[in-house]
Amino acid sequence: MFSKTCEYALRATIFIAQKTKEGERIGIKEIAKGIDSPEHFIAKILQDLSRKGIVQSAKGPNGGFYLDKASMKQSIADIVKAVDGDKVFQGCGLGLKQCSETEPCPIHHEFKRIRKQLFVMLDKSKVGAFTEALENSLTFLKR
Amino acid sequence: MFSKTCEYALRATIFIAQKTKEGERIGIKEIAKGIDSPEHFIAKILQDLSRKGIVQSAKGPNGGFYLDKASMKQSIADIVKAVDGDKVFQGCGLGLKQCSETEPCPIHHEFKRIRKQLFVMLDKSKVGAFTEALENSLTFLKR
DNA sequence: ATAATAAAAGATAAATTAGTCTTTTATTAT
DNA sequence: ATAATAAAAGACTAATTTATCTTTTATTAT
């Protein structure tokens, strides 16, 4: 559904949200461990997320990644859009560029309905909302 | 959502279904034109679809691709599975391999619901069912 | 049998995505 | 000021996906 980069981005951001709520800034190494991702790769991704304002970062001792209030309220959909673009929310299921209401592909209408539901679901899911379940080991970000 | 290969495979199969209903076998060149895909690439893809029994083919003069009765009843979901595997119907939204009912990722349950709906929709969509709308230019397979 | 046709097969190339490693810059505590 | 820390930046490699081109095999009509 999403690119690997996007999957790592989502896991990392949720992980950072959790740590932020615990009052910590968190370094790349711990993030990589915490979400079971290649360290250097997640570093690249976080660099990009930081540039885009999806996560916040501080250099130097006591530095690391964290989320400010606005970032905490972001939705999964926001992150997906920022990383993979909105192809998954907008694009034609059969890959047609011109596919639209007036020139629909054979599955356009049904597909649109599903995509809409996907978007609504991901848009409702706010990054800051997963902390409690993670703390209580009801949900996981590894393996 | 799907790979390019899969998108072309779906368009090609629906196109072949239409031609089959018109009583024609159809060659690679016409298919490529009919679905606006690179000719050599769709040739490769059809070769694979043919091996998998998703489309039927005949070599030599008057040869070409067509669908037998069973293939005509296949669903979009069947083709997606054959080409992209069932990652899109089964896989974790955050890319976790172990994600399951007992070890769910933070969005597991909601995601599952959407994926289910996607599957049901694509499973209901039978390859042979799109012909009429295509004939009447109510739907399209190009651009 | 032969020539023409059309898919199958195979080999290669280009583009994109995923992943790694090294160097630089900014920040902090001493 | 200096050393330590940690992210940012940049350069590179590997793998996968997408795409192209050539040769072979099967079939049909003459």
Please give the structural blueprint:
Two copies of one chain form a homodimer.
Chain A: H1 4-21, H2 28-35, H3 39-51, E1 56-58, E2 64-66, H4 69-72, H5 76-84, H6 87-90, H7 108-124, H8 131-135
Antiparallel strand pairs in A: 1-2
The first copy, chain A, binds a DNA duplex (30 and 30 nucleotides) through residues 3-5, 27-29, 38-41, 43-44, 46-47, 50-51, 57-65.
Account of the 3D structure:
2 copies of one chain form a homodimer. With 143 residues, chain A is mostly helical. Chain A has a single domain (4-135), classed as Arc Repressor Mutant, subunit A. The first copy, chain A, has 8 helices and 2 strands; from the N terminus they run H-H-H-E-E-H-H-H-H-H. Chain A has a two-stranded antiparallel sheet with strand order 1-2. In chain A, a hairpin with a 5-residue loop joins strand 1 and strand 2. The two termini of chain A are 18 Å apart. The model of chain A has no long low-confidence stretch (mean pLDDT 98). Chain A binds chain B through residues 1-2, 4, 7-8, 10-11, 14, 76, 88, 91, 93-99, 103-108, 110-111, 113-114, 117-118, 121-122, 125, 130, 133-134, 138-143, and chain B through 1-2, 4, 7-8, 10-11, 14, 76, 88, 91, 93-99, 103-108, 110-111, 113-114, 117-118, 121-122, 125, 130, 133-134, 138-143. The structure holds a DNA duplex (30 and 30 nucleotides).
